[in-house]
Amino acid sequence: MATEFTVGDDQGWTINFDYEAWAKDKVFHVGDKLVFKYTAGRHNVFKVNGTAFTNCTIPPANEAITTGNDVITLATPGRKWYICGVNDHCGNYGQKLVITVLEESASPAPAPSHPTAPAPNSAHGISGSGYQLLMAAMVALAFLAV
Fold first, then answer.
1. Is 126's pLDDT higher than 50?
2. Model pLDDT for residues 81-106, shown as the tens digit of each residue
3. What does 47-98 look like in DSSP terms, one character per residue?
4. What pLDDT does residue 114 have?
5. What is the largest CA-CA distance in the chain?
6. Rounded to the nearest 5 degrees, what angle is found at the Cα of 107, between the Cα atoms of 119 and 9?
């Protein structure tokens, strides 16, 4: 089932807010929605690539989302970058968000009716957990950001 995330929770989409900390404990899946809430005219939202995100490069104005209640459905897995293009909100006030979107979450499998042997890799501590993959990606990005 899709989840709706209000970016920044009660603070909304604003300046001087730590969106990296906001996103770090959240898991985003294909089909989830991001809702950017702000006073129209004071902010906007641009979907950008990693380079534009890092450099706070503002795309053409006609690419801005500007309603103040902007809903973005996460349609594909991978990294997603968003910035505010008003004045220097991205560069000087940290109004930017990066997330990693995972494949659409599947319904949990029913519990087996009888005990089963552990998977071969589990005996060696190897796991394909999406959470571990997400954490590894975030650590790698943290090193790239430094």
1. no
2. 999 999 999 999 999 999 999 998 66
3. EE-HHHHHHT----GGG-B-SSEEEEE--SSEEEEEE--STTHHHHH--EEE
4. 53
5. 61
6. 115
